[in-house]
From TrEMBL:
Superkingdom of the organism of origin: Eukaryota
Official protein name in the record: Uncharacterized protein
GO terms (BP aspect): proteasome-mediated ubiquitin-dependent protein catabolic process
Top-level taxonomy: Eukaryota, Viridiplantae, Streptophyta, Embryophyta, Tracheophyta
Gene3D superfamilies attached to this UniProt entry: YVTN repeat-like/Quinoprotein amine dehydrogenase
Molecular function terms, GO-annotated: ubiquitin protein ligase activity
Length: 33
C-alpha cells in the first residue's frame, strides 16, 4: 500500500526503514520536522 507523508521544507539528510515494521520509515532534515 502507498501512504502519504508530509514533506520536508529543506534537504533531507537521511532516510531509514524500520527492521521490525518495514512499512514505517523515518527521515532527518535541516528543517527539524
Amino acid at each position: 500500500s502507498i501512504m502519504e507523508y508530509e514533506e520536508h521544507e529543506k534537504r533531507a539528510w537521511s532516510v531509514d526503514f524500520s527492521r521490525t515494521e518495514p512499512s514505517m520509515l523515518v527521515s532527518g532534515s535541516d528543517d527539524c520536522k
